[in-house]
Structure formats: C-alpha cells, structure tokens
Design goal:
- The complex is a heterodimer of chains A (about 525) and B (about 180).
- Chain A folds into four domains: about 5-120, Beta-Lactamase (2-Layer Sandwich); about 125-220; about 230-385, Histidine kinase-like ATPase, C-terminal domain (Heat Shock Protein 90); about 390-520, Response regulator (Rossmann fold, 3-Layer(aba) Sandwich), CATH 3.40.50.2300.
- In chain A, helix 5 packs antiparallel against helix 6, helix 5 packs across helix 14 and helix 15 packs parallel to helix 16 (about 470-480).
- Residues about 390-400 of chain A have low confidence and may be disordered.
- Chain A is built from 17 helices and 18 strands.
- In chain A, about 40% of the residues lie in helices and about 20% in strands.
- In chain A, strand 16 (about 455-460), helix 16 (about 470-480) and strand 17 (about 485-490) form a beta-alpha-beta unit.
- With about 525 residues, chain A is α/β, with parallel strands linked by helices.
- Chain A has a six-stranded antiparallel beta sheet with strand order 2-1-6-5-4-3.
- Chain B is of the alpha+beta class and about 180 residues long.
- Chain B has two domains: about 5-60, no CATH class; about 90-180, H-NOX domain (Alpha-Beta Complex), CATH 3.90.1520.
- Chain B contains seven helices and four strands.
- In chain B, strands 1-2-4-3 form a four-stranded antiparallel beta sheet.
- In chain B, a hairpin with a 2-residue loop joins strand 3 and strand 4 (about 170-180).
- Chain B is globular.
- The relative contact order of chain B is 0.13.
- The chains are: A alpha/beta (about 525), B alpha+beta (about 180).
- At the A-B interface, helix 5 of A face helix 5 and helix 6 of B.
Chain lengths: ~525, ~180
C-alpha cells in the first residue's frame, strides 16, 4: 500500500525527517531541522552537515548496503542528535528521524512539542512524567500543609483544653463551696421553712452549674468519673444483658466470672467502656458469626507488661480475658493494634484499643493481645487488685498509740486550700463521727503527718506551692498504711497520680464523698 | 475542576491580599486543605464559589476575577511545578497554543476525571491568531481570555484578546499582538 503525504503532513509526523537523493544530497527536511539548522538548503551534501554515529552504519554511504536499518546521526555544529530508520526509496533515501529525548538534550536544545511527531509516544511519556512530577511536588506541599494544619489544630485544641480545665477547676471549687455550705444550711436546725426552701433553690442551682462545668471538663478531656475500689465481676454481671446485645445475634457470648469479691480501683463507666470496646472489636472480627468468651480470674504475678525501666513488683491482679473465634491478626497488624488512629477495619476509628490501653495503664494495669491468623484473637486486660491498704488497712505499726483505737480508725487528714470549703467539709465529716485534722496547705499537712498517724488522707489536688498528688506520695512514704482520696475540679497533666488512689470529682456531693470515706474505714 | 486550579486561586489571593485574606475566604465558605488536593477533581460549583469569594475580596466582578485568574495562572504555572511541562509545550505564542491539546492530553492522563478543553489554532498570521476553544463547560470564556492574555505576556508580547464568536460549546478568540520589545 502506498500512502502519499504532503510535506506539511510528513513534517507533522516526522518533524526531523531528512530526504536524500541517491547522491546523498538533501532533497527535503522537516520543520524541526529547518528551525535548528536555518542555513541548511536543498542540494547540500548530507555529510557536510551531519555525522553518522551509530555502530552498524558507519557513514551515510553504508546505507545502501544496509537498507531499512536503524541509524543515529548528529549535526556537525553539535546542536542536534537524531535517531530513527533509514528507508530506501526508488529515488533516494527517507530518514525517519526524531530527536533523542534525554532530559539534558531536551533542555539544552530548547526543544518543544512541535519538534516531535504528534503520535510520538516517547514525548507524550515525557510530558506525562513532567505533569506527574508537578503533581507530586504539589502533593508534597499539600502533605506539609496538612501536617501544619494538624499541628495548628492540636495546639489550638490544647490551649482551649487547658483554659477549659482551669475554668472548670475554679468553677468547680466555687460550686463545691456553695454546695457544701448549702448542705450545712439545710442541716442547721431551723423552724423557718423559707430557709429550707432557699437552701433547696441554691442547691439545685449549684447542681445545674455543675452540669455546665461538666461540658467544660469534656472540652478539656477530663474524666468526671469517681475512682473507687469496685468488683469487676459485679460490673460485668450488672451489664451482662447489655453486653449480649453489643455482640449481636450472630455471635455467641459466654461469660465466666471468677474474680468474685476482689476489687480493683477503677471507674465504673471506664471499665465498662473497655469491655464494650473489646467486645465490639471481637464482634467485627467475625462478620459471619462466631463465639466470644469473656472470663475473669484472679492471678498472681506481674499485672503489666510495660517495661519502662521501673521495677515491677508481682501482685494479685484481676485478669479479664476476651477471646474470639474470628479471623485473627498477623504479626504486622498485631504490632500496630494499639496505635492511636490505626485501624484494620475500613470504617474503624483506630481509637477503641488505644483508649482501652490508655485506661488500663492509668489504672495501673495493662492490656495486650495474642492472635493467630485464622484462629482468633485473645485480649488480656489486667487490673491490680486493690490492696487492703487501699480498702481496709490494719497495720498496727502505723498506728499511733497516743490516740485511742477508735480515734485512729476514724482519723482523716483533710487538706483544702479554700477555707470555706474546708470549714464545710470538716463540719460534714465530724457530724459523721470522723476525727478530722484540717489543713489549708500541703506544708501544714506534712507537719501533721509527723505528729500522728491517719487512716485517710483526703486532699485537694490543685493547691499553691505543693499539689495534692505530691503530698499524697509523701504521705504514703511517711505512713504506708494511709489511704488516699484525691478531690479536684481539674486534674492537671503535671499531677502524678498513682494507681490505687481514690478520686472524687468536684463539685463534691456529700453523699458520694461520705460513701467513699466509709468504704475506706 | 481539579485541585491544582484551587491552589492557583489561593496563591493569587495570597499574592494580592496576603495570607489572612485567604484564611478568611476559607473560613467564609468552609473549605480547608482538603479542598486543595492537587489531583482531586472537585465539583465546578465549588471552584466558582471560591472564585466568587475571591472576586468579592479583590473588588472585582466574577468575570474580571476569572480573567485575572487566567492571566495569573500562566505566570503561576510557569514559575511553579508545571514549569518544565510549560517549557516543552512551546517557545512562542502560536506553537504554545497549537500544542495545548498535547499538554492537556498528558494532564488528562495524570488526572483522570478532569474534563479538559480543546484548542485549535484556526489561523496564524503575523500579529494575529484565531483560536477555537471547545469545552463541555460554560461560563469560563473570561478565564480563557485571561489565559491567552497571560500567554501574550509570557512570550514578551503586547496585545489583546477578544471574543469573535460564541456558540454552544465553542468560542472563537482573536489575538492581536506585537513584539513587546519593538
């Protein structure tokens, strides 16, 4: 088949073509050649302007010997390097040439798309690479921008959280004073019904104020939960019907509880959330159904696997074990399972396991996984058992013989830097029959600890000079049997709380506080 | 339109009015870095919303803003990551315009889903070009005018761009120019 093309059409297909006659004189050339060698004219000898540089075709005179052979040529002035095919024709030779496409050559010769044939795949690929490189550069910029935005957002969140925390602290302190003193007012013997009514109104309003402070605390990521010694079996038992709903109808759930009346210092909802999170994970590992077993036992040994260089002492702990018959995880997934924001599930938030771990560690325990692909996953969640010292210590060595036994049994060292709150708390506790030593600062409390022994240290956390957590640490060293209840409207990150200490959130509700104190006596 | 265009608009607003002006714009229409992802194709209504908001801040009409953005885009692309692709596309006004479809072919391959226009250099005479623009989109004539004007500036020329004819899906632009150094 013979295809006839005009010079223009030929130039569009092969902008760097050369047409030679049988004497190797130029009979035609493409527009790119014309642009780069403006002095070149029809009739000029090929070898005046070009050198053949390919191995197989040493000179243009070899072309007749090796028709239809690849050829590479360079202009003698050095501005062009072309390669292509030499095709023999009845009246000469057609050199279907194109510029080489090394980036150095492209840049040095200021070539443009018109110097390449419209259907030239190589130049199209080069353009595509240039565009993709541009996209990649912009994607890198975007990644940096997103990282910066995230940083900015985190910093803003942290500032907001801190301010909210401080506001919540001050607000809760004031509410505590109002609530406690309103209760005093209500308790005071009076025949005036109006006073009782007004005390009720103030109390109710303080309770509403407390709801506002809960929002502030949520903004500062503060838990408002009370920490106390609780039976994990009781918590699971009380919620067993709900837990069965959580796992759904396709999954069987068996619950075997053997930790009995042993207690761990936890928050009720915090512990329940952990169990729910783990059950949801187990359920999602079995989209086609399966079985989950939830068991508790009491064990001896190390409650935690955390190796932070600290000396770990063996202790009794409650072990919660949740095992599923799901797809299991490989080593790679297992190693990242607790990573915040990491999830192997398409719609997973990556927060469930991370929050379980954070909670377990905060409570002095730990959580870890064992998994076999195809067989299932087992989660081990451990919490140290609340020691007798945390609940009902009976260490005679720490008792001061100068006080009678009853006074020792019911002695409370109370530390609160707000005088009005202190006054109200002293009155409330003394009315319940406790022997209270009130202190307005940690320094006063440390002095008191030198003079006698106490059953309970009840202290505010945020105080000038020395905070309540620091005081509690010193008190535990001075009197190892002392039980600690911390109270605060805000727990700063700097406060080093120890597992096993009780915690009650301000504004204080007298019934909750008295209940907590009573458990420790 | 694709995110690269949004990034271009952002840079124009930042260059002309400062970074705070862009933050205010982002806040007003509720966008952020996720609306500036280079290879992402966004709905045209979002792009036009950004242009409208930019126009209000630059004290321009939307058409004027589209023209200014087209003009800015050529300079922005020449200075930025697309510079090597722009360089290869052409070294003079006529070559560049006649090779635009080839540039867009690569852009289309790199960004699937982008609906790119076609440009046909219908007539090329000294000092005069007639360009046919075909697009599935409407309402972007002023942006294209700005792009062509930006090209005049890119090649050191002076001139103007006018719309000679406009029918559904096709607009004919006339470019009159002369050497800026003459």
């Amino acid at each position: 088949m013979l295809v006839q093309l005009t010079d223009i059409q030929l130039g569009k297909l092969f902008p760097a073509y050369l047409l030679l006659d049988t004497n190797f004189q130029l009979a035609g050339f493409g527009p790119s050649i014309r642009k780069l060698l403006p002095g070149l004219q029809i009739g000029h000898a090929f070898d005046e302007y070009f050198d053949v540089i390919s191995n197989d075709v040493a000179t243009v005179f070899d072309i007749p010997e090796r028709p239809n052979h690849p050829i590479e040529i360079a202009s003698k002035c050095g501005n062009m390097r072309l390669h292509g095919l030499a095709a023999q024709q009845p009246d000469g030779y057609f050199l279907a040439l194109r510029h080489v496409t090394t980036s150095q050559y492209l840049a040095s010769q200021q070539l443009e798309l018109t110097d390449f044939g419209y259907a030239d795949p190589e130049i199209q690929a080069i353009m595509l690479i240039a565009v993709q490189r541009a996209m990649l550069e912009e994607a890198q910029d975007t990644a940096l921008e997103l990282a910066f935005e995230r940083q900015r957002y985190s910093a803003l969140l942290e500032r907001t959280s801190r301010v909210s925390g401080y506001l919540a602290h001050d607000f809760n302190n004031l509410l505590s004073i109002i609530s406690l003193n309103t209760e005093r007012l209500a308790r005071a013997p009076s025949t005036d019904g109006k006073i009782t009514n007004l005390a009720q109104i103030i109390g109710d309003t303080a309770a509403r104020g407390s709801e506002i402070s809960q929002s502030l605390m949520a903004l500062s990521h503060q838990s408002s939960e009370t920490l106390s010694a609780l039976s994990i079996d009781d918590i699971i038992n009380e919620n067993s019907a709900f837990l069965k709903t959580v796992v759904g109808s396709k999954v069987g759930l068996s619950i075997t509880l053997h930790s009995g009346s042993c207690k761990a210092v936890v928050s009720y909802n915090g512990l329940l959330n952990c169990v729910i999170n783990l059950l949801i994970n187990a359920r999602e590992a079995m989209p086609d159904g399966g079985h989950i077993s939830l068991a508790t036992t009491v064990r001896d040994g190390l409650a935690t696997k955390i190796d932070d260089g600290a000396k770990l002492s063996p202790c009794k702990y409650i072990a919660i074990e949740i095992a599923d018959t799901g797809s299991g995880m490989n080593e790679a997934l297992l190693s990242r399972a607790f990573e915040p924001l990491f999830s192997s599930k398409p719609n997973g938030t990556g927060l469930g396991l991370a929050s379980v771990r954070e909670y377990a560690i905060d409570m002095g325990g730990d959580v870890w996984l064992e998994s076999t692909p195809g067989e299932g996953t087992r989660v081990f969640l451990h919490f140290p058992i609340a020691t007798d010292a945390m609940i009902r210590p009976d260490d005679p060595s720490v008792q001061d013989q100068s006080f009678d036994a009853d006074q020792n049994e019911r002695s409370i060292l109370l530390v609160e830097d707000e005088p009005y709150a202190l006054e109200a708390l002293v009155e409330m506790l003394e009315m319940e029959g406790y022997f209270v030593t009130p202190c307005l600062s940690a320094a006063q409390a440390l002095e008191a600890l030198e003079t006698r022994s106490y059953r309970v240290l009840l202290t505010d956390i945020v105080m000038p000079q020395q905070d309540g957590a620091e005081l509690a640490s010193k008190a535990c060293i001075a009197q190892p049997g002392i039980r600690v209840i911390l109270m605060s409207g805000y727990v700063p990150e700097t406060a080093a709380l120890q597992s096993g200490w009780m915690f009650i959130r301000k504004p204080l509700a007298s019934s909750e506080l008295l209940g907590l104190v009573d458990k420790l006596m | 339109m694709y995110g690269m265009i949004h990034r271009g608009i952002r840079n124009m607003v930042q260059d002309k009015l400062g970074e705070d002006a862009w933050f205010a714009l982002e806040k007003k229409i509720g966008i952020g870095p996720t609306e500036l992802l280079t290879g992402m194709v966004y709905d045209d209504t979002l792009t036009l919303e950004i242009v409208s908001e930019a126009a209000a801040r630059l004290n321009l009409t939307v058409d004027e803003c589209l023209f200014e953005f087209g003009r800015y885009w050529i300079d922005y692309a020449s200075r930025g990551s697309l510079s090597s692709a722009m360089e290869l596309t052409g070294h003079d006004l006529a070559s560049f315009i006649s090779n635009l479809d080839r540039l867009h072919l690569s852009v289309g391959m790199a960004m699937p889903g982008s609906r790119l226009p076609n440009f046909n250099l219908a007539l090329s005479e000294p000092g005069f070009l007639k360009v046919e623009y075909h697009s599935q989109r409407t309402g972007l004539e002023n942006f294209v005018s700005g792009l062509l004007y930006g090209l005049i500036e890119r090649f050191g020329l002076i001139g103007d761009v006018s719309i000679a004819d406009s029918t559904a899906g096709k607009v004919v632009f006339e470019i009159r120019y002369k050497d800026g150094h003459a």
